[in-house]
């Protein structure tokens, strides 16, 4: 059998597709790929399927395994950055002057740094995201989009989507394809990290505090990880697990105080403030400078190579000749770049004409330092159907983003756990250049290894 994606004749068979869509939605419900509705985000009386693709999307086997293999190195990198205060100070010194949100996070960081750390256990649960950049010869290269060190989501639901796609493919008469969908269990991998940190914390009665959003549509994603923990039993706050707190809108003045209080507490923070800052786009850009990875991995050139191979071009917008060059480059060819502020959650980046508009406005002022510039990754588009409540069915031209979950626990100087915890494929229509699942743009998917 040809190792390809879903053939066009299947995608164009309207009667089959109509049947499959009904089967797919029921299968998503039966397998617990669920979300609360927009109308009643805090009640489970009425729930719906989380948005997902009708078919899995092709991902080259080698690239997929490359992404999994580099994850434990990324875990170590994030952890090393979080412990390197002079690097964080230097990398973020310009950003915090002009970006209020990062500045306030940094104030908390300085505060706890001065006081001294209260807790020697560090728990990291992150997700490194990639797109596959097309090369001229038809091959593709794995390029990191970003790493999320706070509130990395959809590990729970991703543990349940493989069965949905397997079932759809079976009903479509594509049994062989259905066998090519991998098992995936990030819930267990993430819960393993939480459980390990809890165990090291060492109080039988202590609990894990989930910090959640006011609107909780994605409750089932949380519950899967939580339920893994209930299997172990527990009660006092051993761990604060942030599934909120990554956007300025998440913070009132009172919430900023609460964040500081948590950072100063004995609880293990996932992430602690330094690990949160290690996940900023500015840090990502600084890591791409020559010699920086070598500084974090002295004597480990293979690790450096493996990580660097996944870097797309990243450019500073700090004041000075280097930043001026970046401005000129972006204005000359805006379609080749993405302009990124220090924000999370999708929908914040700028593309094409917007890049010119914004850069023309800020290019002479220090405000430009709030952004970084990145090469635009150009994945090969694939046809698929995106299933989302209330959206009419149509064949879409889609782009996929592969996420890999990492889980690690450090106790003092000892890495006691460092694992790749599973993967997540998200797919969106190429009409949108930005936005994740929670932002209502991308949908859940599975890789069909080719
Ligand atoms: P966020 O933290 O808001 O998720 P991202 O850096 O992941 O920020 O960008 C959001 C989305 O924008 C990504 O999911 C991807 O679809 C798109 N995107 C970001 N960077 C690039 C890039 N360099 N090339 C192509 N698309 C990108
Ligand atoms: Mg992000
Ligand atoms: Mg992202």
TrEMBL record:
Q: What's the EC number here?
A: 6.3.2.3
Its annotated pathway reads: Sulfur metabolism; glutathione biosynthesis; glutathione from L-cysteine and L-glutamate: step 2/2
Entry-linked Gene3D superfamilies: 3.30.1490.50, 3.30.1490.80, ATP-grasp fold, B domain (3.30.470.20), Glutathione synthase, substrate-binding domain superfamily, eukaryotic (3.40.50.1760), Glutathione Synthetase, Chain A, domain 3 (1.10.1080.10)
- Give residues annotated as binding ATP: 146, 281, 340-349, 351, 401, 428, 434
Record flagged with keyword Nucleotide-binding: yes
Q: Which chemical reaction does it catalyze? A: gamma-L-glutamyl-L-cysteine + glycine + ATP = glutathione + ADP + phosphate + H(+)
Q: Keywords for this entry?
A: ATP-binding, Glutathione biosynthesis, Ligase, Magnesium, Metal-binding, Nucleotide-binding
Q: Which GO terms describe its cellular component?
A: cytosol
InterPro entries attached to this UniProt entry: Glutathione_synthase (IPR005615), Glutathione_synthase_a-hlx (IPR014042), Glutathione_synthase_C_euk (IPR014709), Glutathione_synthase_N_euk (IPR014049), GSH-S_sub-bd_sf (IPR037013), GSH_synth_subst-bd (IPR004887), PreATP-grasp_dom_sf (IPR016185)
The annotated subunit structure for this chain is: Homodimer.
Q: What is this protein called?
A: Glutathione synthetase
What species was this sequence derived from? Oncorhynchus kisutch (Coho salmon)
Lineage per the UniProt record: Eukaryota, Metazoa, Chordata, Craniata, Vertebrata
